[in-house]
Amino acid sequence: MNRQPGSTARAYHEATKHTADSLRRSTHYLDWANMPDPFRHYEGSPVLDLAAGPPAPNGIPPAGGADLLSQMFFYSAAISASKLVPSAGYRYALRVNPSSGNLHPTEFHFFTQDLRGWPAGLYHYRASSHMAGQRATGGFECAPVTILLTSIAWREEWKYRDRAYRYCLHDAGHAWQSVALAAAAMGLNAFARGRFDDAELARTCRLNADEWPMLLIDLSGIAAAPSTSPPVYHTGEPNRLSEEVVAYPRIERVHAATSVVEPVGAADPAAPGSGGIHLPAPEPHAIPFAEAVRNRRSALDFIGGVDSISLAQLSALLSAATKPFRADFAGTPFVQLYLYVHRVADLAPGVYRYWPSGGELEVVHLGDQRVMAAALSLRQDLAGNACVAFSMIADLDRALQIHGDRGYRYVHFEAGAIGQRLYVAAESLGLRATGIGAFFDDEVTRYLGVPPSRQVVYHFAVGYPVFDNRVDAG
């Protein structure tokens, strides 16, 4: 009997759903003494300086390799602020690219051809110091710059246990769009590749066993010359992240299943639709890109009350979130947005389905949704205090029919990428956003009336933030 496409991913998704019973049964306590180091270093490898304090992108790529790489990572992956933990008396770093629980499973490696003043080779971005660890010199088959996003699942498993793989994939999606948005601001083209041989790529990059390849992003529009010299690897040992690493076999199984690249299958395309409520033209972004991404934070909570956002601001959020993705797995989108509208001027409170092809909203439920949005989001008040909250509903069956288990990655990459676009768009409009990875899965889909073939994969909220005095700008 043939195995159903994506059966391992389906089983994982079902097993990691939140329910009221699963929360009551939970006895998990965080082992703070064993918390993973959020920064990877390769001890003993040469370290190259990146230009400090790079200017804001202006649509023209810097000519020098160190300047170009510095600008790219400063606006996509660098430390941007610090936050105080009052109970412990210490500060921890926040970064440009968001992460579930600020645990940052995603690492940035990159290949370069010969850039001006920068040797061809393989590098690892050291976010802790905004420098590049040189892993190898010489020629690799790559674009002028190719960025590899990897994931260290243990960083998320430490807190979120079996559900952590979902968050690792979301965070890879966040990082993908963080790079893509920075590239666009710099006048570069970015194209993501999710189809590759995981094991071969891990060998080429000499990754530690705890690091898994997730996405390749090719950057073009850069002056570079291919290197003809063969690769020469440098020694360098990855730092140990925790004294003890706890194994999560369910995550290891689903990752092994998603590591198989299957022939692309056929599936019915997503059905088009319309909503009847036409949105106005998007409001222009008031805050420049560089300022928005460096000041982006996840809102601690939102101010309730009567303050609303405009319909044009909502249109801008939705337009930014749903622009076509440039990736080898991005054909017809897998994710559709459902909105819990609390305070949007000239739009009645309710639940709406968004149809991006015509920029239209379809009514699902009318009436005050604040209590329901919070309840569905694992009883988190911020989903009700926001001006608008979102459920990202994925056509999971279609993704798994087309790509097998690997489609599970693509669905969550897309959701994380939408989240990053919402983060930056909200900040650019003078608002703030936060991702919500925890929700009552089946209750969400039942309330929205979606079939079992579709699953909720991410929640999001946007509004006016409560001031967080624990954060210092970086």
What does the radius of gyration come to?
22 Å
Low-confidence stretches: none
Roughly what is the average pLDDT, rounded to an integer?
A: 94
In total, how many beta strands? 20
Helix segment tally: 14
Q: What is the global morphology?
A: globular
Classification by helices and strands: alpha+beta
How much strand?
Answer: 15-25%
Tell me the span between the first and last alpha carbons: 57 Å
* Share of helical residues: 25-40%
The major β-sheet equals: 8 strands, antiparallel
Report on this structure:
By secondary structure, the protein is α+β, with helices and mostly antiparallel strands. Helices cover 29% and strands 23% of the residues. The chain is built from 14 helices and 20 strands. The termini are far apart.
Task: Summarize the SSE layout with pairings.
Blueprint: H1 7-15, H2 20-25, E1 42-43, E2 47-49, H3 65-74, E3 79-85, E4 90-95, E5 106-112, E6 121-126, E7 131-137, E8 145-151, H4 153-160, H5 164-185, E9 189-193, H6 198-204, E10 212-220, E11 232-233, E12 237-238, H7 249-258, E13 277-278, H8 289-295, H9 311-321, E14 335-341, E15 350-355, E16 360-366, H10 370-376, H11 382-385, E17 388-394, H12 396-403, H13 407-428, E18 432-436, H14 441-448, E19 455-463, E20 471-473
Antiparallel strand pairs: 1-12, 2-7, 3-4, 3-20, 5-6, 5-8, 6-7, 7-11, 8-10, 9-10, 13-16, 14-15, 14-17, 15-16, 17-19, 18-19
Helix pairs in contact: 4-5, 5-13, 8-13, 9-13, 12-13
